[in-house]
Amino acid sequence: METSARVILACRDINKATEAVNDIKETTSSAGEKNSEDKPGQLVICQLDLSSLTSVKNCAQHLLKTEPAIHILINNAGVFLHPFEKTENGFETHIQVNHLAHFLLTLLLLPRIIESGPGCRIINVSSAAHLGGNIHFEDLNLERSYSPVRAYCQSKLANILFTKELNKQLIAAEIQGIHVYSLHPGVVKTELCRYMDASFFRGMTSIVRLIQPFMKTAEQGAQTTLYCAVDENAGKESGLYYE
After folding, report:
1. Which of 6, 37, 74, 223 lies 20 to 30 A from 243 at CA?
2. Contacts of residue 148, Cβ cutoff 8 Å, sequence gap at least 6
3. Which residues are catalytic?
4. Which residue, among 56, 9, 12, has the nearest Cα to 191 in the 3D structure?
5. Residue 186 domain boundaries
6. Which of 135-149, 151-165, 220-234 is the least confident region?
């Protein structure tokens, strides 16, 4: 908002997205008054349900129609420790919402991102949990032995592997000026922990609340993402993982 950017919030819940937009506008309004000579930024909401690949395609088609340029794509939404469930597309929830949907959205928007370069960036928000992950190609849905922890770690590892492979493919295609990153934002106070009681034991969520004072705020957790999105030094790198 303060840099005159046009920011698109692709969200599942339009009501919550609207609340977020209002909060951002309220937070940045005083700064905007101090810099009244600058052109104000824009906040736009777009419907996106990552548990539906049809919704992903519809969102991408809408953005391709309405946005002549896409300079930064941040794949950030996700689920954590979700009880076993398949999406309408037949994939386990973690692997689709955290990885496959972002993978599809990125590939659908990639031609426009390339056209908008050089200097464009793609950021995949992963997690340090990838260290405990393996890609179970023979059982991607983990139906033989499901564990929400295993499912989450697998999806976060997939984010990083996708980032590295996308960077390799861009280099191989001699496409310059597109930088891709993956990162761990830290332990942040968000709604990601809402399934802990069902995944572990009743009361686990209450235990997590006890350590919330030691967690990062949403603003603090966003710093690594912002570094990858706008920092000049990050613009000299690509395909790397940041913490």
Report:
1. 6
2. 81, 82, 83, 84, 94, 195, 199
3. 152
4. 12
5. 70-241
6. 220-234
